[in-house]
Design goal:
Layout lengths: L1 E3 L5 E4 L17 E5 L2 E5 L3 E3 L1 E4 L4 E3 L5 E2 L3 E3 L2 H18 L5 E2 L8 E3 L2 E5 L3 E3 L2 E5 L8 E5 L3 E3 L4 E5 L7 E5 L3 E3 L4 E8 L3 E3 L4 E8 L3 E5 L2 E3 L55 E6 L10 H4 L1 E8 L1 E8 L2 E6 L4 E5 L4 E11 L6 E9 L5 E3 L5 E3 L1
Parallel strand pairs: 2-11, 3-6, 3-22, 4-7, 4-23, 5-8, 5-24, 6-9, 10-12, 11-14, 12-15, 13-16, 14-17, 15-18, 16-19, 18-20, 19-21, 20-22, 21-23, 22-24
Antiparallel strand pairs: 1-2, 25-26, 26-29, 27-28, 27-30, 30-31, 31-32, 31-33
Protein name: Ice-binding family protein
Organism: Solirubrobacter deserti
Family: Belongs to the ice-binding protein family.
């Protein structure tokens, strides 16, 4: 019989069966991204955990990414992690079956702890809900014979004390996450993993033999034991006052000798503090039949002289950007939340932190808090 959640989405409940056993990632646990042949990145992705590759050596495109963890390129640490991944993959594949979901779209299902099998490929369109029934140790294992694919703006929703740390996707070939997908759990693919633009993962991406491809994604396992947490934002050191150099008699037209705006040729230091930064944001709206609370909204930082923006959602780094447009897509999550943007400037303007609060309704509306952004130095 169907079950209706507070967000207004009808779900098909699958009867509970035997509970799945824990899957131990061992030394692969610190990694949020571990590839076999290579790992590539396009755009300002954020990795809250370690990055590695073995037996390949290529880690490309991470110059503009935010890496909150160690990097292991074809070293002994990555090699051992791959060995432990192979063991964990086998444990997941050997779990006693709770239910065979072959031919069923994961979207719209409400699943309780257990092991679920797809003899070939699996598809997620819409929202999959995993209910741990108030047991934070409950395990979910998905045994997928070939490929896993998610449609754009699909999501995995965890309720009843479920945690992404205890969700395992054992995939026979490859996984592809669609644009804007909000995924949860540990993806363990025998071949490759590809994420489209703005897809996010609360969990890990672990590929045994193939390549992992990222495009402007956030991969976060900092909530899981064994994973390095994102380091706190370093404090901003106040800039010392600018002391004009002794005047030489040469000044710019309209400038007094020793003025802080006089050119360097005039014997003074040129200092500008013209940086500005303000929030703009789109109103929430439904996308592809999803309610507004599932669609979220886009927040953008606009201004002058902006050098870099680091976004945090409820205190956790979710994106870094070093060139315009400085945008962040915010998913519709239940309850009250706070998005902050730490903005640094190309000139001498002091760094600023902008704060935006929003509240997602329990039904279908996402209501960002409108009003002026708050600045803190």
């Amino acid at each position: 019989m169907g079950t209706v959640l507070a967000v207004g989405c009808a779900l098909l409940a699958v009867p509970a069966g035997a509970s799945a056993a824990p899957v131990n990632l061992a030394t692969a646990s610190p990694f949020v991204v571990l590839g076999g042949s290579a790992v590539t990145n396009t755009g300002p992705s954020v990795l809250n955990g370690e990055l590695g590759v073995w037996p390949g050596t290529a880690l490309t495109g991470f110059g503009i990414a935010t890496l909150n963890g160690a990097v292991h390129a074809n070293d002994a640490v990555a090699q051992q992690a791959q060995a432990d991944l192979t063991n964990a993959y086998g444990v997941a594949a050997g779990q006693p079956l709770t239910s065979d979901l072959s031919g069923t779209d994961l979207g719209g299902l409400l699943l309780t702890p257990g092991a679920y099998r797809f003899t070939s490929s699996a598809q997620l369109t819409g929202t999959l809900t995993l209910d741990a029934q108030n047991n934070p140790d409950a395990q979910f294992v998905f045994q997928i014979g070939s490929a896993l694919t998610t449609a754009s703006v699909s999501r995995v929703n965890l309720v009843g004390a479920a945690t992404p740390c205890n969700v395992y996707w054992q995939i026979g070939t490859s996984a592809t996450l669609g644009t804007g997908t909000a995924f949860q759990g540990n993806l363990m693919a025998a071949a490759s993993i590809s994420l489209n633009n703005a897809a996010t993962v609360q969990g890990r991406l672990l590929a045994s033999s193939g390549q992992i491809s990222l495009i402007n994604n956030v991969i976060d396992a900092s909530m899981c034991p064994g994973t390095s947490s994102a380091p706190p934002e370093p404090p901003v050191t106040p800039e010392p006052p600018v002391t004009p150099l002794p005047p030489t008699g040469l000044t710019a037209p309209g400038s007094a000798p020793g003025s802080p705006t006089a050119p360097g040729a005039g014997g003074t230091r040129t200092v500008t503090r013209n940086g500005t930064a303000v929030w703009t944001r789109t109103p929430p709206r439904a996308v592809s039949g999803q309610p507004a609370c599932a669609a979220g909204f886009t927040a953008t930082i606009r201004g002058r002289q902006i050098e870099r923006v680091v976004y945090r959602l409820d205190g956790r780094v979710v994106r870094g950007a070093s060139k315009s447009p400085f945008r962040l897509f915010v998913r519709g999550l239940p309850g009250r939340h706070k998005v902050t943007a730490r903005v640094t400037f190309k000139d001498a303007t002091p760094a600023r932190t902008l704060t935006l609060g929003y509240r997602a309704c329990a039904s279908v509306a996402l209501r960002p808090t409108y009003g002026p952004a708050r600045f803190t130095g």
